[in-house]
Amino acid sequence: MYLVKDLVGGRIVYFWQDKNGSPRSDFFSTFLNAEEWWKTHVFALYAGVERRTSIIDRRTNYDKRRRLDHSHRFASSNPNGRRITDLPVKVSRDLAAEKLQGR
Question: Within 10 A of 57 (CB to CB), how many other CB atoms are there?
């Protein structure tokens, strides 16, 4: 899935699209809400026994993790984690910027 940022009714919204460009989620008013929806969606798709009790990953405090990585001699070789939900979410397509530049 791809995160899309768009300008709808004069407001910035975020939503998820599948690889065919079909919307997969509602509109979200904040990036964090879109990120949380995606993580919840991915966790719901997992059929095995889930060992994590929270979708919030402790490693998402990037500033703290960066400080610890620089000060800790045995820092993890994979500081973002192993799951796709551990990686930072990024906007794949910014339709809002395209619309604002076209004005």
Answer: 15
**Segments making up each domain of the chain, as ranges:** 2-58+88-102
- State the DSSP H helix or E strand holding residue 52, giving kind and residue range, or none if neither: none
Instruction: Give residues with Cβ within 8 angstroms of 80, minimum separation 6.
Output: 59, 86, 87, 88
Other residues' Cβ atoms within 10 Å of the Cβ of residue 69: 11
Residue 54: the pLDDT is 60
> Beta partners for 91?
3
CA distance 3 to 92: 5
| pLDDT at residue number 8 | 96
- Is the dihedral angle over the CA atoms 48, 51, 54, 59 positive or is it negative? negative
> Which has the closest alpha carbon to 91: 10, 17, 11, 26?
17
pLDDT at 18: 95
103 Cβ partners below 8 Å, 6+ apart?
Answer: none
Higher per-residue confidence, 26 vs 86: 26
For residue 100, the Cα-to-chain-centroid distance in whole angstroms is 24
